[in-house]
């Protein structure tokens, strides 16, 4: 729709202008640092940073009801820069002018209702928000869009040049960083570090296809992360992991989209998110807090983090009910089908601790919970979801398993609706479905396939004497008729088809 067709009172707010004053904020020592250079840790105390809008109170001058209208009307604009996460420009980095925004189709992912069978299985009515429908097929694109838009702004307006964008990854961060990096005509190259043998073939193929330098490191993600942290401290590189606070800003859009999808009435929702490096749950909590602070949502939804028993440091931390007694201890991870979340020492833990505290202060102790699920539960949940019309990955399965557990244990009231984060597309993690169907899980995974969830192709193979078609060779019509009679008969028998009268 053209600008002059919008209601008059909305027009001045439709296309945002660059503005605002931002700083890196350290959650540990409280100090602030300028954003004119890329910082990943606090120069004073070494802790992770968040990005703070120093003029946040100016946004409060606009009432919540008007913000809701602005965001809703903006979704009718055809301006590419505002088609994705920057529809919420004022909330996620208004210093970036719209012309610096890099939009590759991320954001605005569908919220799909589960059918009656699946809701029954979970114990409550729920929806999957399909972040696997982002361009690199995971939610990481939300954060990459903002981190790369900021780089683009630094290149275009601050004279930054020859950027080497680098990241460690459990697979999806590198796929996303390589995709966004490859879009730049000049100024940006990308390199990704992966734990050797610990990403799926699809995830390895993605950065290779985008033309990034792909480097494999022995060990697990946590080891790769240490290497890129060292590199980012000692060399001139742009770190694209969620340690980079610009990533968090973009990922907050996930919360904004949920609010918008439910007409901003989300006080009765429970939102389930898998936890790996804990960047996503940081962004989700921060996103809802910002909406609440501006009066855009009248009440906060409950947020559940979900972890596998094989990579559960955040779960263990919150097992201790008394805040003062909690001690964070990294864990040594074991092989997990939720491989994208197989992280024992989440970089964002200090952010999580701070935000959970604030969230609970505003919405009550029960407003944030962490649940733990088994590898078996993750696989069974993923397969059950996908047999009911979804396309969720193992981490999406992890969310469903977590939701089911939360209902069964009474943490999630059966009457409350849930939104589950389907963080990536099923196809990225099809190796785990293959292992399940062929009963070939290594014992460490502790997954035993259930017969009713397995599936395999059936080959119709003509016996000797019945001719078979061979690609590239023409078949005599009589031979083909014999093959057709045999194959159709075999399929009809397999499917138990009834003859037409
Ligand atoms: C990265 C990732 C996660 C974990 O998110 P964190 O921000 O690291 O906690 C979960 N699922 C998928 C598919 C991912 O790519
Ligand atoms: Zn600090």
Structure, described:
Its cofactor is pyridoxal 5'-phosphate. InterPro entries: Ser/Thr_deHydtase_PyrdxlP-BS (IPR000634), Thr_synthase-like (IPR004450), Threonine_Synthase (IPR051166), TrpB-like_PALP (IPR001926), TrpB-like_PALP_sf (IPR036052). Keywords: Amino-acid biosynthesis, Lyase, Pyridoxal phosphate, Threonine biosynthesis. Belongs to the threonine synthase family. The modification N6-(pyridoxal phosphate)lysine is found at residue 140. The termini are far apart. With 501 residues, the chain is α/β, with parallel strands linked by helices. The chain folds into three domains: 111-135 and 254-453, 3-Layer(aba) Sandwich (Rossmann fold); 139-251, 3-Layer(aba) Sandwich (Rossmann fold); 458-501, no CATH class. The strands form three sheets. It has a six-stranded mixed sheet with strand order 4-5-13-10-11-12, sandwiched between helices. A four-stranded parallel sheet has the order 8-7-6-9. Strands 2-1-3 form a three-stranded antiparallel sheet. It contains 17 helices and 13 strands. The chain has helices at 11-14, 56-59, 64-74, 116-122, 140-157, 172-183, 201-209, 221-234, 245-251, 253-261, 279-293, 313-319, 349-363, 375-386, 394-408, 430-437, 477-495, and strands at residues 22-26, 32-34, 49-53, 111-113, 126-130, 163-168, 188-195, 213-217, 238-239, 269-274, 302-308, 368-373, 417-422. α5 packs across α9, α11 runs parallel beside α13 and α14 (375-386) packs across α15 (394-408). It binds pyridoxal-5'-phosphate (PLP) and zinc ion. Residues 26, 28-29, 31, 42, 44-45, 47 line the site of zinc ion.
